[in-house]
Specification:
elongated; 19 helices; mainly alpha
Length: 419
């Protein structure tokens, strides 16, 4: 069986332009970016190799600008396909939408159709509704709707232009981000989340929304961070902070970036640096600034920062401090934050188990299971299972047996296997 030839269009254009190696093109892109007034853009040979592969990733707007400038051809002619279809603005022939691999099921539309601004507003309203529904609707129920909505946005993008296109792309980015969040935190499908978050970043690039780009990149840092890949997580956080600097970012967004990095550091066993990051986040929130927090960033608050802190203190072995911090976070958590409540209850159970208080540990774990029965959250269930493993020394105690009866009852067991 023959191997795919790769992106021969880009390779041919590269050679025709006088760049005989992938390294030469990488160097030329980096140099031309500065000449075009694009700061901080650097491309390596590994990236060029990916562009010349059989399935080249869709470059970000600044990179596209440099490539078309250097090679004198548009992105279609260079062998790239946007997730939402043809990128050739000058084409006089109506094209069909080419969905992103594995993500496109929306019927194709003719790019000769122009959607009114009201259609974009309607799309945005559904995106906002999904944002609010995330906190109460079962993730397995909401996820297909959010993903199909994002696909619809991809189909509509070729039919919009100017400010309407930018607004639509921003809403598509948020829909893909929500889908990726569900896949990672609620369904525990990190590989799928990685792909979906890439779509979110591509859409954010089309919208030229640097803050959304920062949020998406920070979410991608969780994926290596939760597998003990400290360098991978750190690299993505550097990128997230670079994007945040491109647009006025609120104190809440900067503090959340610290919190994300702190969680990755904690998961990689570096609790000391994590606590420093959390302290910096607390100072950032206390100082504040005049920049508004984006409406879509509804997953962070001082109470959630305290939840990050309590978990880090727990893992660092600072049990009295962790207990106090987690109780304060639980007391200040809004009633609607049911998913975060399960995580806090699981961490409180872990504190008591580490402090040799099995009765209290089991009590908190049962409360977490009660909450999970109402609002499923895979991350919360993981916390409860971790606590149960730490309770092995008290295997014969009545409280642990009662926890097992609750943890492995018919409803909980079937729900966990289904999800």
């Amino acid at each position: 069986m023959s191997r795919p030839a790769g992106n021969t269009r880009l390779k041919s254009a590269r050679v025709a332009a006088g760049y005989n190696s992938q390294q030469e093109l990488a160097d030329a892109v980096t140099q031309a970016a500065g000449q075009l007034g694009i700061r901080g853009l650097a491309v390596g040979v590994r990236q060029v190799r990916r562009w010349e592969s059989a399935e080249p990733p869709w470059p970000q707007p600044d990179v596209r600008r440099v490539l078309t400038h250097l090679l004198g051809q548009n992105m279609d002619e260079l062998g790239f396909a946007a997730p939402w279809g043809s990128t050739s603005a000058s084409s006089s022939t109506p094209s069909r939408v080419t969905p992103a691999p594995g993500l496109g099921t929306v019927p194709a539309q003719s790019v000769t159709t122009t959607q009114p601004a009201s259609a974009v507003r309607s799309f945005e309203s559904v995106t906002q509704a999904h944002r609010h529904l995330y906190w109460s609707v079962a993730p397995a129920t909401l996820h297909p709707a959010a993903l199909e909505h994002a696909r619809l946005g991809c189909a509509l993008l070729p039919e919009t232009a100017g400010p309407s296109r930018q607004a639509l792309a921003a809403a598509v980015a948020e829909s893909f981000l929500l889908s990726g969040r569900i896949e990672f935190f609620d369904l525990r499908q990190p590989d799928r989340a990685e792909e979906t978050l890439l779509r979110a970043l591509q859409a954010a690039g089309e919208a030229d929304d640097a803050l959304m780009g920062a949020a998406v990149l920070a979410h991608t840092a969780f994926i290596p961070g939760w597998t003990d890949d400290r360098d991978g997580a750190a690299e993505r956080m550097v990128a997230a902070r670079a994007y945040a600097r491109r647009s006025p970012a609120s104190a809440e967004l900067w503090a959340w970036l610290d919190a994300v990095e702190a969680e990755c550091e904690t998961r990689c066993g570096h609790t000391r640096s994590a606590l420093k990051l959390i302290h910096h986040a607390e100072e950032t929130l206390a100082d504040g600034n005049d920049h508004p927090t984006p409406d879509w960033m509804d997953w962070f608050s001082p109470a959630r920062l305290a939840a990050f802190k309590g978990n880090t203190q727990l893992i660092a072995g600072h049990l009295p401090q962790a207990r106090e911090t987690l109780h304060q976070a639980l007391d200040n958590l809004p009633e609607a934050s049911a998913k975060q409540r399960t995580v806090l209850l699981g961490d409180l159970a872990a504190v008591e188990a580490a402090a040799d208080n099995p009765d209290e540990a089991c009590r908190y774990a049962r409360e977490a299971l009660d909450q999970l029965a109402r609002t499923w959250y895979a991350t919360g269930m993981e916390r409860v299972r971790e606590v149960r493993r730490t309770l092995a020394p008290w295997q014969g105690e009545q409280c642990v047996r009662e926890l097992d009866d609750r943890l492995y009852d018919w409803g909980t067991t079937v729900s966990a296997l289904q999800r």
